[in-house]
Amino acid sequence: MTDTDILIPTSTIGSYAPPSWLCVTLEAIGRGELGETDINETFDDAVRAAIADQERAGVDIVTEGEMRRQDFVLGFYERLTGLEELPAPRTQGPDGHDQRGKWLPSVPLDAPDGLGILAEFEFAKNETTKTLKVTCPGPFTLSGRIQTGGIYKERLEVAYACAEIINTELRHLVAAGAEFIQLDEPSYAVYPDRPEAFVKLFNHTVEGVSAKIGLHICFGNYRGRAVGKRSYRPLFPYILDAAFDQLALEFANREMAEIGLWSEFPNDKELAVGLIDVKNYYVETPEDVAALLREALKHVRPEKLSITPDCGFSQTARWAAAAKLKAMVAGTEIVRRELTNGTL
Length: 344
Hints:
By secondary structure, this protein is of the alpha/beta class. The protein is built from ten helices and ten strands. The protein has one domain (3-86, 97-341): TIM Barrel (Alpha-Beta Barrel), CATH 3.20.20. It has helices at residues 20-30, 36-57, 117-124, 139-142, 155-175, 186-190, 195-205, 261-264, 286-296, 318-341; strands spanning 61-62, 83-85, 103-105, 131-132, 134-137, 180-184, 212-217, 246-250, 270-276, 305-309. The mean pLDDT is 94.
């Protein structure tokens, strides 16, 4: 059975909660205490654990959990040529977005060995029989920590350089069998004054990529905190001109605010509705999820609807992530039965 055969399929956004032993091992890797085989085994087992947790919860479309990545995008900068890491502007006090440094390019950006996402996919596709969604940071988000003013005059110029690299990676993924690829662009919502420019950039990035394309837009989740004003309205209706098949948005932590945008701007795209609050340690009950899903169905046809958490689980403890996924699946199943039985 494919995801197209499932009524209101469930999925994760991308990242999964790292096991505690992975965090300990990463510190040992940083100290140079592990060999290449040790490191590969560690990441392989972390991916297996992430997939297993999703499968145990009954999630229909799984991801590999982004277990090999460093802090969403920072690890990718190690794969780009000619970048010098600059010191973080703030190093003390509560963790925040302003504690992450920037990278200064000395030559035009390139990734001669790719971004590493192809290798992630090739391993993960043999670890599950479920539909596997591949995730990739979008070019505007990937450009966010790269310093402008030198080779690149402004951020969109950096983003277009990243788009070329990403497009090559996506084409390689499709050639390797990837059928569902999601680009993550939280920065779209953080800079809501340029939606038409974002659409042009996104369409350039996925040009010639023959797969189901998803676009995830959130408001940031570093240390469980948003980084911008939490409203999608400035992006509508422009964002609907982007060449995606599915748009993934967060609603749970905003009490379903702006779900009405889908009715206000009718379209034929899929909507992945975030119904699990990853910024909250309250574990939703299946009934909580079912109530939110019924609200979503007032605006989205069931055949165009998928259910996800608001964002990735990288900032969430594993026990909570697993419990929340089980509730998400159970709540979705309640509403599936209601739709099948004609009681909704």
